[in-house]
Specification:
Elements: H1 12-21, E1 36-39, E2 47-52, E3 57-60, E4 63-65, E5 72-76, E6 84-90, E7 96-102, E8 110-113, H2 118-121, H3 128-141, E9 163-165, E10 170-173, E11 176-177, E12 184-187, E13 193-195, E14 200-209, E15 213-219, E16 224-231, E17 233-234, E18 241-242, E19 247-250, E20 261-268, E21 271-273
Parallel strand pairs: 8-10
Antiparallel strand pairs: 1-2, 2-5, 3-4, 3-6, 6-7, 9-12, 10-11, 12-20, 13-19, 14-15, 14-18, 15-16, 16-20, 17-19, 20-21
The structure holds zinc ion.
C-alpha cells in the first residue's frame, strides 16, 4: 500500500537563512504566518482551500472542518449554499477569528415535463430498502478524510464526448421537482474508456447500484472524492490506488438512465460540488 503523502514544503527563506547562518531559527524570526488565508471562488458548487496556523481548529457554519498538520484545510459550497457562510478559526492560543464569506448565488437550468408515467416519477416501493442501502454505502465512500493532496493536481478529462448534462439542473415531472442533477454528463458510447482524472484511492466499486448502476468513488484527499456513474464495466476494485490516466471503467447505460453516458461527480464529503471546476477546458455556463 502506498504511504500517505505528507506535504514537506519548507519556506525558501527559511532554508536560505538556515544555510547561511548555519543555525535553525525559531519561528518568531520570520513573519508570522497569516492567521487565515482562503483561496478559491466563493460561489455555489465551488471548492475553497485554506490555511491557518498549525494546531488551529476550523469550522464552517458551525460544522468542524478537518485541518491537516500544516494548517491546511478544504471545504466546498453546495448547490444551494446560502448567500453568506461563516468560517471560524480557533488559534492554538485560543484566540478566535470569524470571517463572513459572501457566496455568489447561481441560477440553474429547469425543465418542466408533464404527462410523465408514474413509474418514472417515484421508484417502486419494493426498491426502497435497496436504495437506502446503496445510499449508506455511497455516504461511507465519501466520508473518508485522508491527508493527501491528489485533488490539487490538474485533472484530465475522464472520457471524450459532448457535455449532455450539467451540475445543478433540475427536471420538474408533472409539477413535482425532482432531485437536482449534481453531475457533469459526458455523452459517449457504451464501452468507451473512463480514466481517472486525478490520482486517488477507490473507496467504492459496485457494478449494480439501483440509480447509478456501475459506480466508482475515488478519494483524492481532504474529503474530496469523485464519483463515476452508469458504467458498463468496472476496471478497479475497492481499496485500489489509481494514478491519473489509469483506466477505471467503461461507459455504459446502467442504473436508471435513458442512454449511455458518463456522469462524473465531485464531492467534499457529503456536499456535492460542481465537477466542471475540475475541467476548465470544458467550461459550461
Ligand atoms: Zn447524469
Amino acid at each position: 500500500m502506498k504511504p500517505t503523502k505528507v506535504l514537506a514544503k519548507v519556506p525558501s527563506q527559511f532554508l536560505k537563512s538556515s544555510l547561511v547562518a548555519g543555525i535553525v531559527f525559531s519561528m518568531p524570526a520570520f513573519a508570522k504566518p497569516d492567521n487565515l488565508t482562503l483561496t478559491g471562488d466563493f460561489r455555489q458548487g465551488h471548492l475553497i482551500q485554506g490555511k491557518v496556523q498549525p494546531g488551529s481548529q476550523v469550522s464552517l457554519d458551525g460544522k468542524s472542518v478537518y485541518v491537516g498538520p500544516k494548517g491546511q484545510f478544504v471545504f466546498g459550497f453546495g448547490r444551494d449554499a446560502k448567500p453568506t457562510s461563516q468560517v471560524k478559526v480557533i488559534l492554538p492560543n485560543n484566540q478566535t477569528i470569524t470571517k463572513t464569506l459572501n457566496v455568489q448565488q447561481r441560477s440553474y437550468k429547469e425543465q418542466k415535463i408533464n404527462g410523465v408515467e408514474k413509474k418514472y416519477v417515484s421508484p417502486p416501493k419494493s426498491t426502497l430498502a435497496r436504495i437506502k442501502k446503496d445510499n449508506a454505502r455511497i455516504k461511507d465512500a465519501r466520508s473518508v478524510v485522508d491527508m493527501r493532496y491528489d485533488f490539487q493536481e490538474q485533472a484530465i478529462i475522464p472520457t471524450k464526448g459532448p457535455i449532455s448534462g450539467v451540475y445543478g439542473s433540475r427536471r420538474i415531472f408533472n409539477g413535482v421537482p425532482k432531485w437536482p442533477h449534481f453531475g457533469l454528463d459526458i455523452a459517449a458510447k457504451t464501452g468507451s474508456k473512463v480514466v481517472a482524472p486525478l490520482p486517488g484511492k477507490v473507496t467504492l466499486a459496485d457494478p449494480d447500484l439501483y440509480y447509478s448502476g456501475g459506480t466508482i468513488v475515488v478519494d483524492h484527499g481532504f474529503g474530496i472524492t469523485t464519483t463515476y456513474l452508469h458504467l458498463s464495466k468496472l476496471k478497479v476494485k475497492e481499496g485500489q490506488w489509481v494514478k491519473k490516466g489509469d483506466l477505471i471503467g467503461l461507459v455504459g447505460a446502467t442504473g436508471r438512465v435513458t442512454g449511455p453516458h458518463l456522469d462524473i461527480r465531485l464531492n467534499w464529503q457529503q456536499v456535492r460540488l460542481d465537477p466542471a471546476i475540475l475541467f476548465p477546458s470544458l467550461a459550461t455556463k
